[in-house]
Amino acid sequence: MHRRDATNLGAPPASAGAPFTVAFLDPPYAKGLGEKALAELLAGDWLAPGAIVVFERGRDETNPATPGYTVLDARDYGAARVLFLRRD
User: Fold this and answer.
1) Domain assignment of residue 13, yes or no
2) DSSP symbol at 5
3) Which of 20, 47, 56, 75 is deepest in the core (most CB within 10 A)?
4) Does the pLDDT at position 2 exceed 80?
5) What pLDDT does 1 receive?
6) What is the helix (H) or strand (E) element at residue 67, kind and residue range?
């Protein structure tokens, strides 16, 4: 497990090994932090091609732009919307 500020990841450390195949994002709702984290994951090559990202956000928020990712599914649970994305 690696803990960093997901909105300012930089490059993975040498000890990180291969790019990750799964990422879970549960940022505070309606602050745009999840979108920043998605961009940082791509910019730093943290994710392997085809990696799955589970991204929770507020149900009432508009769907985000997800350049570099394909939306596979979206499900609502109470106040949350969970997006399932695949890295292109």
Assistant:
1) no
2) -
3) 47
4) no
5) 60
6) none
Separation of alpha carbons 12 and 34, rounded Å: 18
38 within some domain:
yes
Q: 34 near 69, Cβ under 8 Å?
A: no
Determine contact, residues 47/84, Cβ cutoff 8 Å.
no
78: domain CATH number?
Answer: 3.40.50.150
Q: Which helix (H) or strand (E) holds 45?
A: none
Widest CA span in the chain = 40
Q: CA 60 to CA 8: how far, in whole Å?
A: 26
Q: How far apart are CA 41 and CA 46, in angstroms?
A: 5
Domain housing 27:
19-87
Give the whole-angstrom CA distance, residue 27 versus residue 57: 7
**31-58 pLDDT per residue, tens:** 999 999 999 999 999 999 999 999 999 9
